[in-house]
# Entry
Amino acid sequence: MDYFMPTRLYAGSDCVALHASELCALGSTCELVTSKHAAKASGALDDVAKAFAEAGIDYVVWDGVTENPPVSACAEAGRFASEHDAQFICGIGGGSALDAAKAVAVFAANPSLDEAGFYAKAWEKAPLPIVLVGTTAGTGSEVTKVSVLTDVAARKHSIHDDRLYAAVAFGDSRYTHTCAPAVTLSCGVDVLAHAAESYFSRKADEISRAFAVRAIRLAMEPLAAAALGKELGAEMRRQLYEASILGGLAINTTGTCFPHNVGYYLTENYGVAHGFACATFLPAMLSCVRSYDAAYAAAFYSEIGSDEETLAGLIRACLPDFGIRMTPEEIAAALPRWEGNGSVNNTRADVTTKDIRALLESLFV
# Structure
């Protein structure tokens, strides 16, 4: 077993206010990295601003985060932070804002860095310290060393580095109460994707499996309610948020499997929300790994207290009808991106591009 996660995580109601003093050690000036609306609507932005005021921390706001943030925008935000002498970066929002904040911290410390240098980790200086405040229950980015961004060619890529861990993360599930139903579902199935893919990763160990199992057990009840269109109360919101953190802790060790990387294709080319895109391929992964190692799959279902049919059915119930249609030629043209792909090879099954082609054709042709 091997586990490393240096982030100080505070969770629970009012955790930002209760632990604001932690921020003083990071510096006296900060850049807040957010989207235009979500951070404000959730109440998180106001709580952080109040905590900064009480701690005597000056800040500027960069609210240009969009879904699937481009590296170029993170570079722009990093230069903005450098020009305003920010000493640390605080990301507030869902996975896009948190992933962007990690990259902004790199560019703020290295304002002349370009995209190639960013991905090559040719960072002369270490990233600025990072604070993360989550407002959705999905990515678990609060506790990972991963940033998923969109490159100049409009392709999604992840970058992993210990220097991208947050110094401090805050997890107050109250901020998720304002999420729209579609956001709750998309982020929620992302939790299932993280946990299931982590469990069925070739890198899984006892610690990562424990995180994954607990995440799924916590997430299934609120997701089943959300799939039926029910309003989630505070306790179910707390369950789902806790599950998202546990899912992040799980993939922090193992990474993801083929549903995530194949899901990127749906996001890039059809605008499908990240969680929905990944979850589209989860039932196929469950079937695939059962065929590959039935005993291992059986242990998984025993631990989560469910079965493949129930879990796959829940996933499908959460997914909207995308109305996507692909031609066999389009699918064939996309296949090289998965040849020798790390996430594909990480799956606890022998998955080939032929298998991916058959899967895409069965779903979209």
Summary: The two ends are 43 Å apart (CA to CA). The chain has 17 helices and eight strands. The chain has two domains: 8-175, 180-364. The mean pLDDT is 96.
